[in-house]
Design a protein that fits this description.
This protein has 346 residues and is α+β, with helices and mostly antiparallel strands. It contains 8 helices and 15 strands. The protein has helices spanning 2-25, 42-45, 47-50, 52-58, 60-63, 153-186, 216-235, 301-314, and strands spanning 31-38, 69-73, 82-87, 92-102, 106-113, 120-130, 133-141, 194-198, 201-211, 247-250, 259-268, 280-284, 287-296, 318-326, 336-345. It comes from Chryseobacterium soli.
């Protein structure tokens, strides 16, 4: 019995010492700021923060969990917008609000976590460093903690900083795909032959061999595009602004063959693990291309392909595959809107 009394006294002393040290030497809340820069203009960056549907797609806290369930409330962007979330696997829930908005300059968030009545306050400032670069600064004020929980303040800033670092990588990938799509749409000049230098890409897709009879090829392309799109969005959980336009790669002159073999894939930012053997990755090297944008029937693309091949022969250039980038998704029975790229080299 005496032994247990001694142990009890020691525990009381230790708890008292811990509580005293927390009370006198550790603040009940924490204030800190984090700065990051991203190579995109502020008018592209800000909508990713003030629209909470965009925000949850790249913010690591929400994106990293497969079990989180999020509800969005109107208005869906700007001051007054909000979300609630529940993550049963990680045993957490909360609510997030945008309390103030100054477009392209400031946002003020409130985050209530795990039924805590006191919110975490996050002010985010946006500054255009240049026409193509934005500085983002987070000013964070954490809620007051009880004496026994103040030890959490030792790692709060590190945890927040780690989340922002991972989130910025995700944001860069999202904006990269979005800006690339916007730039491609703005640069379209139909039926004009151009020369472009294309960067390398990583595509996730499928290899296909099919008939080249009238309409059969395009029906097959539309069907297989749906397979790839559904796999990327449903199985891999990717959103439309996280990947690029679908690309079909095939021999430049196989339009006259009875059987056509092609690879149809969707560009992703990096290679990831895929369990379904029907899908595989294909890397596309950087290249110089002769390019034409084409809108019309799929069969009508042949005329544009012939123009690219004739141009390559005239310039005494060798050529490789033809890449068909679908600016609008291929749909059976509808015209195509595509970019035709013939890789050329000496």
């Amino acid at each position: 019995m005496r032994f247990f009394k001694i142990i009890s006294v020691i525990i009381v002393i230790m708890v008292g010492a811990y509580a005293a040290s927390m009370y006198y030497f550790v603040d009940d809340s924490k204030n800190f700021q984090i700065e990051k820069e991203i190579d995109y203009p502020v008018d592209k960056v800000f909508p990713q923060f003030n629209n909470l549907q965009n925000f949850t797609r790249w913010n690591n806290f929400f994106k990293s969990s497969q079990s989180i369930d999020i509800d969005y409330y109107t208005p869906y962007e700007g001051q007054g917008s909000s979300i609630s979330y529940v993550d049963p696997k990680n045993d957490t829930d909360g609510e997030m609000f945008i309390r103030y908005e100054n477009p392209n300059k400031t946002l003020k968030y409130q985050l209530f976590e795990d039924r805590n009545e006191n919110p975490t306050l996050v002010d985010v400032k946006f500054k255009a460093v240049s026409a193509e670069k934005t500085k983002i600064t987070w000013y964070v004020h954490t809620p007051k903690l009880s004496v026994l929980r103040r030890v959490e303040n030792f790692w709060t800033e590190d945890r927040f900083a780690e989340n922002i670092t991972k989130s910025m990588v995700n944001l860069k990938n999202v904006l990269g795909n979005k800006v690339e799509k916007d730039n491609q749409m703005a640069a379209i000049k139909y039926d004009s032959l151009m020369v472009e230098n294309e960067e390398s890409k990583m595509l996730l897709g499928i290899n296909v061999s099919t008939s080249n009879k009238k309409d059969a090829l395009y029906r097959n392309i539309a069907m297989n595009y749906n397979k790839v799109y559904n796999f990327v969005t449903m199985d891999l959980g990717k959103k439309d602004d996280e990947f690029g336009y679908p690309i079909l790669i095939t021999d430049a002159d196989n339009y006259k063959d009875k059987e056509v073999s092609y690879f149809l894939g969707i560009p992703l930012s990096k290679k990831i693990g895929v369990s379904d053997n029907n899908f595989n990755f294909r890397s596309v090297n950087a290249s110089q291309n002769y390019v034409m944008y084409y809108r019309g029937t799929y069969e009508g693309r042949v005329k544009a392909i012939l123009q690219l091949i004739q141009k390559a022969k005239k310039d005494e250039m060798r050529f490789g595959d033809i890449r068909q980038t679908f600016i609008e998704r291929p749909v059976e029975g509808q015209e195509v809107n595509m970019k035709l790229s013939l890789s050329v080299f000496k």
